[in-house]
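Suppose a colleague, Dr. K., hands you the sequence of a protein chain of 486 amino acids and asks what its three-dimensional shape might be. Before reaching for any lab equipment, you can write down a predicted structure in token form. Begin with the sequence itself:
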Amino acid sequence: MNDQIHSGDEHGALGDAEYAEFMELAALEGFDAEEVEGAIGEAGHGPLPVLAVVGRPNVGKSTLVNRIIGRREAVVEDKPGVTRDRVTYEAEWAGRRFKVVDTGGWEQDVLGIDASVAAQAEYAIEAADAVVFVVDSTVGATDTDEAVVKLLRRAGKPVVLCANKVDGQSGEADATALWSLGLGMPHPVSSLHGRGTGDMLDAVLEALPEAPAQTFGQAVGGPRRIALIGRPNVGKSSLLNRVANEDRVVVNEMAGTTRDPVDELIELGGITWKFIDTAGIRRRVHLQEGADYYASLRTAAAVEKAEVAVVLIDASESISVQDQRIITMAVEAGRALVIAYNKWDTLDEERRYYLEREIETELAQVAWAPRVNVSAQTGRHMEKLVPAIETALAGWETRIPTGRLNAFLGEIVASHPHPVRGGKQPRILFGTQAGTKPPRFVLFASGFLEAGYRRFIERRLREEFGFEGTPIHISVRVREKRGRNK
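The predicted structure, expressed as tokens, is then:
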């Protein structure tokens, strides 16, 4: 694979000669240098920084998340305990992109609210680079808010204090009183009406690290990081103990509040791997309907820390909607992916037949992910797990040289042109791979490319270059209309 990986320098994905040739091609097709570099830079970043939005129930966290991401996606209800499937969103402010982890909608345990808040906030800041702490300025700082402050101080992450529900000048004094929390300046905000959110987001950008520049061919420091994820009771703990060849203590219990789970260093196939533990985290409070949301939050935190996600599915049961959502979470996070079907040794011929049909219909969108059929109980086929993980990581890090990619795109355009729409036929003019981990491509086109055609391009990329075990991101930059004199 080394011939496919080029070490990035000041041009990121492209070496000097390749860059000059590429920019000459862009100029011939009517794109200016700033436009092209902007498109490549936008797509060619490393992992986006993560912002967690935390606070007690009903302070307006989900409303604030919707305001930050610019659309209504986070569920907003006055009732704590609203279960949601998705907790991570992408956002942009002042030209910088980042991820937002929404921690709204969890169940408040009236008998142990401090423990509930601490557990909730812990899972959120586990994956975060910075935190927005939301307080209801009309109520002021409560004992629960003080409990969150203690947790934030221990975590050591940068914190932006959001004094929410400040709808006018009269509420400014209420916001000022929150200096007493000792977290610095309270930012008066009305997440419902948008008042003050711009100033708060400016402070967020100061707290968040920049998305790292994309580099190619660099060795990753330390053991490769694997998140072992799946819905409850599919055998994650059993699998972790099986690969470790011993019963590991996978939960670090402490009196009072929960602490970070222990990441397991395990030697497997002659290589030391770091398993990001989600298997052993137990619920410390009775969350009832919030339990599924907790599972989503823990999974999101583990995936953000990992390079490859191994999704464990109980082969003895029908593939569930929750299984599909967990897989989607890993794909949307841009992680390499392996799907392990557990309890394979318990299946009879009839169940195997129906499982194959379910995989074809329910998981067709991730047919590119390596699959292993295992038994955590007996150890059956566990030796196949490492090759599958290595295959997925190799696909995740693969880079196609720009010249080879454009030769491929030329063949595609010639043999399978985009359908004519409204009397026009958009064409792919040229493209480049702007990043890896996962592979990210920028295509420059003469017009809008339909979603179906983008999926066709992705399918052909996989057929030609492999990319087994990795999602592929394709962005399209359409050539702006210019006068003839330009």
